[in-house]
């Protein structure tokens, strides 16, 4: 691909080609940051781990938490945002008073390494934060669509899905597919039957860094949904909650809420957000920074296809699917990548300003 002329000169350097490269870049940059630091590793296997680094005073009562790869394959985008921020801190090692940064790199390292949204147990971590002690949520729409979801012919699959969409409407269609399901472990948007690795890691991170009681600005970086190049701040706090008002104050009208129907995202079960909402109470807010790529039909095509292919286990088909997944969730286009970094820098600034005025 031709190198485009961009406002940010090192755009492509920030975006890793693989989990291994991103991991290496992350670890390598840390020693060059001239601020107090404490890093920690949460291994999944010998080769795969979630990494964290706390930058700033250990007792800081305001913390910006920046998370990548909740959906593994989206880690290329999240890691680029983290890399860009670390590079910025290397040249300008300054933070607002009483403030620390906590970077959570590769919350789902398996999915990042394998170019999948889900983890090694097929769990979509962003549907996994439900109460497993009570009956799991039901998604009758998903069950109705299962035949279409596993249809090996993409054209026919699309026709079947369209039929459902015409009959039930756009929102019901999106909820049926992507709202979360707890019945089909091979399928997409599967919330699991117990806490997944990333869920358990979040608990360990909350404990390890004693996050309870601190003011928190959490930004979870995602990609693949919404208009091409647009970074949407999705706020899943309920409109009556303190976190909702905080998000509106900090991020202004650029924050969109699924609960009020303004967002590209529909209301979903088991989001990572909900765990942080409980933790932060009225001290801060959680936003998903979602970077749009290709149309939603392409999103469903690549993700459904990926689940069909992994079910068959054909290595050549898996390789092709991984490439399609990477392009959907992190387009190679340098201009798209530049927009990601510009928007992320703005959001990080908004979050730090917001925390600073608490
Ligand atoms: Zn995502």
Write structural notes for this entry:
- This protein is α/β, with parallel strands linked by helices and 358 residues long.
- It has one domain: Aminopeptidase (3-Layer(aba) Sandwich), CATH 3.40.630.
- Helix content is 44%, strand content 14%.
- The protein is built from 13 helices and eight strands.
- The chain has an eight-stranded mixed beta sheet, sandwiched between helices.
- A hairpin with a 5-residue loop joins β1 and β2.
- α2 runs parallel beside α3 and α3 packs across α13.
- The radius of gyration is 19 Å and the shape is globular.
- It starts with 10 loop residues before the first helix and ends with a helix.
- The structure holds zinc ion.
- Zinc ion binds next to loops.
List strands and helices in order, with pairings.
Blueprint: H1 11-14, H2 19-29, E1 37-43, E2 49-55, E3 62-67, H3 75-91, E4 99-105, H4 109-114, H5 140-149, H6 154-168, H7 170-178, H8 197-208, E5 215-223, E6 231-234, H9 242-251, E7 255-256, H10 272-280, E8 284-291, H11 296-312, H12 315-329, H13 334-356
Parallel strand pairs: 3-4, 3-5, 5-8, 6-7
Antiparallel strand pairs: 1-2, 2-4, 6-8
Helix pairs in contact: 2-3, 3-13, 5-7, 6-7, 9-13, 11-12
Bound molecules: zinc ion.
